[in-house]
UniProtKB/TrEMBL annotation:
This is RAB6A-GEF complex partner protein 2. It holds the Pfam family Rgp1. PANTHER family: REDUCED GROWTH PHENOTYPE 1 RGP1, YEAST -RELATED.
Length: 390
């Protein structure tokens, strides 16, 4: 009896174009009755499964030539000895070439051998995503077989983040100029790894402070002024903004709330219904009473487990801040402040108010973060255990 276990050496989250490394250990049981246990072969590969909701999504029809090519590939995968996506839900939309770990492995009781599987995640891979209509999930599949025995599969799930514009060197020109002007740096500069370049791009884009102010109005007049300090954020960051109610605002605001929402847009050719709406998901809420306040601020943390904005042939994910302002339709009595500090006064609000609701949406950009940081909150659940027995 041989026990096979596998784990990813650097965590569960990776960027597209990164190299994934998985260690696979084969251990022969010390209580084995045979003097030597053997395996005929073992191989490993990556694959991505796309699962769609049939009530919301319909896959577009392919041309006849592409359909025949896909049918030939499907038939060839069925006839081969290893089908990594066999038994998985959805369609396999991405699969790397299988790599042989070994052939004819022999182990004595108590002996153990470890093999390392390395593969580059394709640059055109979609990100891991669990939406209401579309799901993308990734796994490393290790297949193994004894002679004249059925194949056994071991699957290890992992998460993929996609950073668009990673190859755009113009984003790094500002940092390069600052580095070249520093006389204490050596002239020879080593080439950074993909992860270092990605972190540098993320820090450059998300550190740019560009405050934008928005005047919020309804049909009765001005309600508030909102200021957002930057337009792009990383996973795990806090979205911080200020809401001011200056003296020029003619509409009293009683309460406001801000919700971080994701918008799941299905491509027109993939919609089950022609007038199908956008699916919304909320990921945090800030609410505060603001009557007689001149200024307030909101803080919304971005969870590490959510998916940054992306686009594929089927779905497009966008992010926004959803505001709701509860305003009074009639002027409210002023709060009288005593002139003498030794005196005190109690303001009693009206029991009934005639209110109105103002809704406003502000698009924002959410980018990935350091994948090693994102791995701390990644919880991947799989029905297949981390080890199998052959």
């Amino acid at each position: 009896m041989i026990e096979v276990s596998a784990h990813l050496t650097r965590g569960l989250t990776f960027l597209a174009r990164e190299v994934l490394e998985c260690s696979v250990t084969f251990t022969c049981s010390a209580s084995s009755t045979s003097s030597v246990e053997s395996l005929a072969w073992a191989s490993a590969q990556l694959h991505c499964q796309c699962h769609i909701s049939g009530s919301k999504v319909i896959l577009p029809k392919m041309p006849a030539d592409e359909k025949s090519e896909e049918l030939e590939m499907l038939q060839s995968s069925v006839n081969t000895s290893l089908a990594p996506s066999r038994g998985e839900k959805g369609n396999c939309i991405l699969s790397t070439e299988p790599k042989i770990l070994f052939c004819d492995l022999k182990l004595k009781p108590g002996e153990r051998k470890t093999f390392f599987y390395r593969e580059t995640i394709p640059s055109d891979a979609p990100p891991s995503y669990r939406g209401q209509a579309v799901k993308y999930s990734y796994k490393v599949t290790i297949g193994m077989q004894r002679v004249n025995c059925p194949i056994k599969l071991l699957r290890v799930p992992f998460r993929v983040l996609v950073l668009y514009g990673l190859g755009d060197t113009s984003l790094l020109e500002q940092d390069d100029q600052a580095a070249s002007s520093n006389p204490f740096l050596a002239e020879e500069r080593t080439q950074n790894s993909l992860l270092d370049l990605a972190i540098q791009v993320l820090n450059t884009v998300t550190s740019r402070k560009r405050p934008n102010s928005y005047n919020i109005k309804n049909s009765d007049g001005s309600v508030a002024r909102f200021c957002l300090f930057k337009p792009a954020y990383k996973l795990g960051e806090d979205i911080i903004g200020t809401i001011e109610f200056p003296a020029g605002c003619t509409v009293p605001c009683i309460q406001y709330s801000v919700v971080l929402q994701s918008e799941e847009h299905i491509a027109e050719e993939c919609r089950r219904k022609p007038h199908q709406g956008v699916s919304m998901s909320s990921h945090g809420r800030h609410q505060e009473f603001c009557l007689h306040m001149s200024k307030s601020h909101m803080v919304l943390p971005i969870p590490l487990h959510v998916t940054p904005g992306f686009i594929t042939d089927i779905v497009c994910l966008k992010w926004r801040l959803h505001f709701e302002f509860i305003t009074a339709k009639e002027p409210l009595p002023d709060h009288v402040i005593p002139a003498d500090q030794s005196e005190s006064a109690l303001w009693q609000g009206p029991q009934n108010l005639n209110v109105d609701t103002l809704v406003w949406n502000l698009p924002i950009k959410i980018l990935p973060t350091n994948p090693m940081h994102a791995s701390t909150s990644t919880t991947l659940v799989t029905k297949t255990p981390a080890a199998v027995t052959v």
